[in-house]
Design a protein that fits this description.
about 180 residues, alpha+beta, Dihydrodipicolinate Reductase, domain 2, 7 helices, about 45% helix, globular
Length: about 180
Amino acid sequence: MPVFNLIREAIAGNRVQRIEGILNGTCNYILTRMAEEGFPYEQILSEAQELGIAEADPTYDVEGIDSACKLAILANAVFDMDVTHRDVEVTGISRITPEALALAAGNDYVVKLIGEASRDTLRVAPRLVPKRHPLAVGGTLNAFSIHTELAGRITVTGKGAGSVETASAILSDIIHIGRSLEV
């Protein structure tokens, strides 16, 4: 999702206090399918690979490294930090069981891999999210919330896995960078 334009232009004048979101469509797909079907992680991962949603080696996605890289980029841009993915506290989804997801669902929660950044926090980890929360999206969707001082929480959602979706976001960000260099 092209979030840089949103932060730099659409909500200009707002101080961003915290950002959080689902930054990896592959993990969201796996968690969604596990919760819906009650199947184990390995089975849903294999399905995601067959569908082309997960890479042949899904380690970067499922262990949260991809989300940590994206979170570090966002933290650097939004909070003027100088961090890498190695500075992010990371827990992946490979140990989540169908039983844990069923327990969460029975209490009106879903489990999502959430990346969170503020001036003093850099974390990617599975978290309980209320079913009616804006980050409780399913399938390969990503969701991103920007918590601001004046406007409160602003949340956007969009497809998080797929070559066309990725290309769209990259193109938007490149155009944004190009325009900022013209000034």
